[in-house]
DNA sequence: GCATTTCGATACAAATATGTATTGAGTTGG
DNA sequence: CCAACTCAATACATATTTGTATCGAAATGC
């Protein structure tokens, strides 16, 4: 259909994306300082020329990767919440678990976000950027929780920000445990436990036999 | 009192400790790969000669630092639990908060432990070492909790391992938040909230006015 | 279709980090 | 008090890594 000769050379944007792909792997596997240009490029079959032609510095690349990762996470969460909220009659328990399931749960994701966090703590310039982006994620969670709680008011609305942070913290913590000792801790166990705690409307739920309904995560 | 001439040269062990001090700072501030021999030595006024004379490699130094940090944490926690358990009549709430308060809560500590964690995830050789050491910390927490629960049985004993991990995860998560946006989140807020959740023996506690008794952390 | 521009690969130069070797001060044992 | 030894500082050689400059292929516009 194209009257022009078929492209044999990828566009600038495509190469950029490929570099970002390589950077994702390399930063996850070896960390910010540990990842080298060579390492990043090898993974996607490009030369350092493409690297230096696409990004002015390592920091710029790191920022770009962070933004891409967060953008994808954001749309993923928004989609999941919209989907879950659209189906009526969902209980808070089910929704929370569905929501949590939509959060990335793989090795590279964890390693990367940990690396991002450390970088942010060490570089004030990125700290605010990071906090702002993470604020959006928290807002999505809070919004979803707020919608849930219109039907299921077992949690005080004032605690929402706190709960959202709690969910994030526990998710990351349990992801670390799961990666460190695979099989030792079930992937969603901690979060399930936390949700049970929060949604317990009486003491009996806390002590109930939690094995009766094993999660299939 | 010493018949020998006063030492003018520090012992090997002392130098080793100083290198570890420098390494603690450097690894916390710049990460494993980011920290250089020069960087580590400068902080404690030693030369790279002392460094290379004390440690065969960077990994060896990192391991040694990890062990020292964990050892100190372990004795700190053991002391805290022993102390808290010795005074009779302590409620679970008070004890948990005292225990949590004994856990390190400073920037370097967080950055270091995060770095250790990442290193462990990336190097299988350290993973088991790390998991074993962290298991001891968890055991201390579980033991303390078990002692508490003899008097205050609002939590099922079978959930102890899960709860211990939850406490650790939330602690680390809130420490990160606190460092990223100082003042935005009170240092112990998330943990207090979690403890409230766990010890709520009826739904009213969850929804109670938590500002009535602000924690002085 | 040709000139111009863009992009990515290769080659080069500079900076930085690590480990080894050497040296001199300080310590220990006879 | 002297000889042997230990330790940390300095100097050196090697290896990586990064950034720049150059070159050729490919796309675009006239």
From TrEMBL, chains A, B:
It comes from the Bacteria. One of its GO terms (molecular function) is DNA-binding transcription factor activity. Keywords: DNA-binding, Repressor, Transcription, Transcription regulation. Residues 36-55 bind DNA. The keyword Repressor applies. Residues 13-73 form the HTH tetR-type domain. SUPFAM superfamilies: Homeodomain-like, Tetracyclin repressor-like, C-terminal domain. InterPro entries: BetI_C, Homeodomain-like_sf, HTH-type_TetR-like_transc_reg, HTH_TetR, Tet_transcr_reg_TetR-rel_C_sf. Gene3D superfamilies: Tetracycline Repressor, domain 2 (1.10.357.10). This is TetR/AcrR family transcriptional regulator. It comes from Sandaracinobacter neustonicus. The lineage of its organism: Bacteria, Pseudomonadati, Pseudomonadota, Alphaproteobacteria, Sphingomonadales.
């Amino acid at each position: 259909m194209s009257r022009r000769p078929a492209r044999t050379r990828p566009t600038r944007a495509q190469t950029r994306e490929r570099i970002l792909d390589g950077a994702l792997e390399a930063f996850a596997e070896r960390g910010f300082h540990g990842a080298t240009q060579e390492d990043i490029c090898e993974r996607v079959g490009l030369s350092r020329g493409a690297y230096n032609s696409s990004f002015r510095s390592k920091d710029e690349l790191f920022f770009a990767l962070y933004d891409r990762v967060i953008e994808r996470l954001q749309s993923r969460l928004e989609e999941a919440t919209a989907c879950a909220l659209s189906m009526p009659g969902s209980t808070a328990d089910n929704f929370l678990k569905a929501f949590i399931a939509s959060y990335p749960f793989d090795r590279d994701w964890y390693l990367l976000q940990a690396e991002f966090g450390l970088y942010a703590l060490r570089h004030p310039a990125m700290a605010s950027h990071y906090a702002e982006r993470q604020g959006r994620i928290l807002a999505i969670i809070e919004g979803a929780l707020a919608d849930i709680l219109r039907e299921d008011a077992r949690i005080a609305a004032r605690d929402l920000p706190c709960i959202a942070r709690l969910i994030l913290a526990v998710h990351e913590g349990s992801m670390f445990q799961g990666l460190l000792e695979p099989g030792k801790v079930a992937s969603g166990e901690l979060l399930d436990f936390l949700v049970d705690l929060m949604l317990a409307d009486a003491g009996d739920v806390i002590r109930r036999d939690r094995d009766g309904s094993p999660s299939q995560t």
